[in-house]
Each structure stands twice: as C-alpha cells, then as structure tokens.
Automatic annotation (TrEMBL), chains A, B:
It holds the Pfam family RAMA. Residues 266-364 form the RAMA domain. This is site-specific DNA-methyltransferase (adenine-specific). Keywords: Methyltransferase, Transferase. The lineage of its organism: Bacteria, Pseudomonadati, Pseudomonadota, Alphaproteobacteria, Rhodobacterales. PROSITE patterns: N6_MTASE.
DNA sequence: AGGACCGATGAATCTGGAC
DNA sequence: GGTCCAGATTCATCGGTCC
C-alpha cells in the first residue's frame, strides 16, 4: 500500500491509495463504513487486457477472438462482483455514482437495479468540447452517463439541494450537466509528455458530485482511482477519500498529484443552509412570548380572518387547529404552510408571521 | 385491424394502425421486411403516493394500467420478447430506436446487446422545459435516453450525415438533442380537453430520427403507436409507416390525426432556426471549473471584499448569497448585476469576472 | 393593439421527525 | 414499526384575461 499520507479514521485507511484488485481490497474493508462511492470502471475490453475475475484468474475471452456474448458474460460477472463488494461497504444511507458510456452503462444500470440499489437520477455529462466523429458514420459522441443510486429504496441519501441550486445560479440543478472534458493544465502528463491516463475525468465533474451528495468529513471511496481526480477534489473540499488502483504507474501519478492539493478553508467550504436544517419554532411560542396576543386576528391572503387562541391554535369559522391546519381548511388544500400563509397588522402595516419566526431564530444564534 | 387507408406494399400493411398485442402482431408480419423500428415502450414507472406542486395542485401522473409491471423479471420477459420479434422483422441493414428513462432504459440497452443488436449511439433528448422536481429531493429529471442500434455489428444502417449536419446549422450532429416537450397546439386532447395520451412525443424528435436514419419510401414500424407521432412524421416526410396499438382510444385519436397530416413539399422541409440567445452561465461553474477557487476574494468597485464559497455563493460581512445578491446588499440597491460588478486579481492585475463568463461562452460555441 | 398578469401543466420511482 | 402532522417545495411555456 502507498501510505505517504497514511492515516486512520474509524479503522479506515483514509486519504491513501490502496494497491490491489478493487474487489479484494473492498472486501478487506469494514462493512457499512463508506458514505459515498464514485466508480469509473474500465469498459474497453478489446484494448485493455487488464480485466481479471474475482479470483484473480486471467480472463481469456477478452483478447481472444472477439466473442460478444462471452465477453458480455465476463463483463457482467465483473460488474456484479464489484457492485456487490461496493454495496457491502456502504453505510445504510450511503450512495454510489457510476459513470460510463453506451458500451457498459446499460449493463451497470441493470445490475445496480438487480442488486437492490435504488436509482435516484441518471445524469448526463454533456461535453462542451467532445472529439468529433471523423468518419461521419455516427453522431458525435458528446456525452457520458452517470447513475446516482442509494443503497436501497428506503435509504435517505445526502442531497444538498440548495448548494446545487446555488451552483446553478438559483435554478434547481438539472440532470444534464454541461462541462468541458479534461485537458489543458488539468490534464496530467507522464514524463514523455503523453497523457498519463486515457480517461482522466475533469475535477469540475467531481466537484459537483461531492458538493451535491456528500458533506464535509464524509468518506468517499473510488475503487478505480486512476489519476486520483476523486481524491484530489475530495481533499480540496474537506472530504476523506480512499482510492484503490492496481496499476503502479497511475498510483504514482495520483500520489504526486495529491501531494500538491490543498484543502480550501472552512469558510469557503460552508454552503447554503437548507431551511429544513433550521430550528423548528412552534407557533405557540409567539403567543407565549407576547409577540402575538390571544384574541388577535390573523389575515389570510384572501382576507379571511382567524383568531389566535392562548394555546397557539387558530379558530376561523368552523375550522380550528394549527396555523397549518386552518390554512389548509380555508383553502380546501391538502396542506398549507401556515408560516407563509398568515399575516397580522402592526402600526397599520400588514406583516407576515414568518417575520416573527425569523426574529426568534436570530435570537437563537446569539 | 383499422384499415381506413388500407394499402399493401411488398405484402406489408403499410400506412395502417394494426390492433392487437405488439408481439403477436409483429410475429404475423413477414421476416426481414422493415427498414426502421421506433419503439416507445412502457417505462415501468413505480410511483407511490400523490405528488403536489408547491401551489398544492396535483400532478397528473402516469398511472395507466399499461405501465404497470409486477417485477423486473416480468418487465425483462416482456422486453426480451418484443425486441426478439422486432429483430426478426428488420431487414439486415435495418435499425431500431428505443426511448426510455432510467426506470427501464438500462434493461432495454442490456437486452439489445444480449440479442446481438449493435448499439450505434445513445442519444440524449435534453428537454428545454421539463417538469421540475417539486420536493427538492432529486435533480430535475430533464432528459430521456434513446438508443439507436443496428440489427448486427456488420450491418450498414442508413445514416444521413449531411442532412443532420444541415439540421444543426452546418455542425456535425451531436448525441444530445435539445428539444421542448410536446405541449401547446401539438398536444392532442380528448373530448374533455384532457391530454389524449400521457406521454405523447414531440414531432421534432421523430423528425430528427427519420431524417437521420431513413430514406423516403422506407417502411417504419412503431409497435407502441400511441397517438401516432411516428406515423404522422413518417407521412409528412414521405416514409411508409406501420403502427401497432392495442388501446382503442389511442388508435382512434391516431387515425384522426393521421387523416389531417399532409406530406411536405421538399421546400417545406427547410426551416430557419432562430438565433439563439446568449447561453446563461451560472457563476458556480467558474468555481467548479477551478477558474476561481473557494476562499478566493472578489473585489467590488469600492474596494469591498467578498469570499467565494464552494457552492458558488459569496460571503461578505453579514451578507451571503449569489454574486448579484451580495453586490446588491453592499450597494443597498434593489438589484445588481454581479457579472459586471465583481473583479478578482490575477498576476497582479484586476480582472472582471465577466471575462471568465465570456471564456466559457466561447467554448460552448465549439 | 399590445403588454402585464394569472392559471394551468408536463413520463416523477419527490419528506422527515416526534411520539 | 406505524401514525401523526409540521411545514418545505417549481421551471418553462402556453393561453386567456385584464388594463
């Protein structure tokens, strides 16, 4: 194992690049310990003879006379085993991202579903500068597909909705992401000036994945580490990473790369707080604290009146109950957010009751 | 069989809507007789409860009986059978298009490969106006996936490279297609003014498919005909169609629609594409792409400093939010164009962040 | 006539914490 | 584990009405 920055957290070898077959190494790590897995597995079986069975025996069918069905079988066996090992490692609310092209992504997607993973979204990385199709026999292959899945249907995976919305300038993030391919200064070269890895992923892609589906301190595993883009972005963003890579040349490039990466400071890593994370304020507290008086009138958007009662419930005609229940009753709606629905009068002006909730929350920060 | 426009070509019931189960009907047609199949099968959506918009209106979901399958096993059996029947019908150089979402497309793609179909491209239909994710729990589901495959690896499928290039303003057509969903006047309604079919596809999508991968006079089969978009566009473009549809209500709507369709003149095919507006660039993309670093300082015209956060928001004193919001806060102004307001330092010089936006836009034109 | 405003709606695996 | 209920959540487009 390469342990230049060796450290341990909860028995996990975090911030290291582990040497070996990804399935074996994953099976050696403790069950239910990983928050997120990002996997960019190989699929170019014809050109790369580096695919091995779980028992490490060499696969002949791949570089032998090309037999589509035999090779799909081999690829499916490989996919099944590493996805199984990955699922064992995930915490119950953990999640996985896989990336691929039409050569392999359908097989990965089907196997994810077969194993009980629950697909949350498929995401299209739309390349702003793809390689053209020179022979004019196909469409320009201008995208790759990612699949984001939780460990099971009833899991509660991390999703930083607000942070992604901010990244997209206030509009909810879509399932198609326009990002350039990795080239220029970001593209790692070996000593001969050749690209160090054929499929190095752009850091921007991992930035979006990690901002959106992990929190600072989370442990992110990449079983096909390559040049370590996942590790580099994880380190910048204050996440822990574990990389697995069997090729020494890639481990070396990745380790050197990681040594140059610096973590962003804490303030920069803070992202927009979701409203759901803010402390709950019972409406009754406004009455207890005298911000609203029992008997005082609240006004609906359509001018209907409800009276505040001493226990923090409302009464309006036949309807009585919480601010939400009475609002829903007046609107004949299945639900209603009473905080944004009701207003009251102060000094001749009409004010939302949510202003009072914000006052209480502001005090709680002191 | 509905044979209002009954005709025969090479023993094929062309330009008709056939009644019945698509597998049985396909098996009754002659082997090796079809040039192109376009298939929009049930997606096997698995919806639980109702979904309401934030304004409390209810989403009219796809809950039709024909979209219900008991298990992946049942869906896979169905997929295997209709793809097998489809492959028997194709001419040796014929091709197939299938469309789906992440619920079913991985299973279709894997089965296509298993049966010996050869995938030519996967194509992303990027919806310009998708339905948002109302609960903020996922990414906006903003695309669907099509797979274009030939009958076998050594086939020579029709591909009208030049025609697609023309459709794309002289640039090689990519594998991601931006098209609006089908609504407005094109969306077929039933007598009650409700949508006639829950998943009617836009004609523009079929236009591109048929222009790109068929020739005039080709026979196009759609085994899940629905409201007959495939037939309508085929007729307009001078292709023959065969539709199979087991729901009488859909057959009726489709037949009526087809009776109104007229074949285009050749000139009518030429369309002028309006100049696109400048693409919107989210500020967060500058951060994801490393053009600005989390923690880096931006400078206002009056020398005030704001720090960039990892989600593309700024923080300056008490103010936090988008580049526009923080700029407006510092100026006590109702609004502010952050792009022209903020600057940063590079190599000792002060540069407007708008320069970075222009860089990104320049790349997007490639 | 034209612009502002409002309501409707689209293939969706769409909540979470307390008790 | 089930039940209850607070309360958080939307973008682009079309078509109709109002000013």
């Amino acid at each position: 194992m390469t342990k230049s920055n060796a450290s341990e957290a909860n028995g996990l070898p975090v911030n290291q690049i582990l040497d070996g077959d990804c399935i074996e190494v994953m099976n050696s790590l403790p069950e239910g310990s990983i928050d997120l897995i990002f996997a960019d597995p190989p699929y170019n079986l014809q050109l790369k003879g580096d695919l091995h069975r779980p028992d490490n025996s060499k696969v002949d069918a791949v570089d032998d006379h090309w037999d589509q069905f035999a090779s799909f079988k081999v690829y499916d066996d490989f996919t099944r085993e590493w996805l199984k090992a990955a699922r064992r490692l995930l915490k119950p609310d953990g999640a996985i991202w896989v990336i691929g092209s039409y050569h392999n992504v359908f097989r990965m997607g089907a196997e994810l579903q077969n194993q009980g993973y629950w697909i949350l979204n498929d995401v299209i990385w739309r390349k702003s500068n793809p390689m053209p199709n020179f022979r004019g026999k196909r469409l320009t292959n201008a995208h790759e597909t990612l699949i984001w899945a939780s460990k099971s249907e009833d899991a509660k995976p991390t999703f930083n909705y607000e942070a992604l919305k901010e990244l997209n300038e206030g509009i909810q993030m879509r399932s198609d992401w326009v990002l350039p391919i990795c080239n220029g200064g970001e593209r790692l070269k070996n000593g001969d000036g050749e690209k160090a890895h054929p499929t190095q992923k752009p850091e921007a892609l991992l930035h979006r994945v990690l901002i959106g589906t992990t929190n600072p301190g989370d442990v992110v595993l990449d079983p096909f580490f390559g040049t370590g883009t996942t590790g580099a972005v994880a380190k910048m963003l204050g996440r822990e990473f574990i990389g697995i890579e069997r090729e020494e040349a890639y481990r070396k490039v990745a380790a050197e790369r990681l040594s140059r990466v610096r973590k962003f400071d804490r303030e920069a890593l803070a992202t927009t707080t979701p409203k759901r994370a803010q402390p709950r304020v019972p409406f009754g507290q406004l009455v207890e604290r005298g911000m609203l008086r029992p008997g005082e009138s609240l006004i609906s958007p359509r001018g209907q009146i409800a009276k505040v009662r001493a226990d923090g419930t409302l009464i309006s005609g036949e309807a009585r109950g919480s601010i939400h229940q009475v609002g829903a009753a007046l609107e004949s709606a299945p639900s209603c957010n009473g905080w944004t629905y009701w207003q009251f009068k102060r000094d001749g002006k009409t004010v939302s009751i949510d202003v009072l909730r914000q006052q209480i929350r502001a005090e709680m920060h002191d």
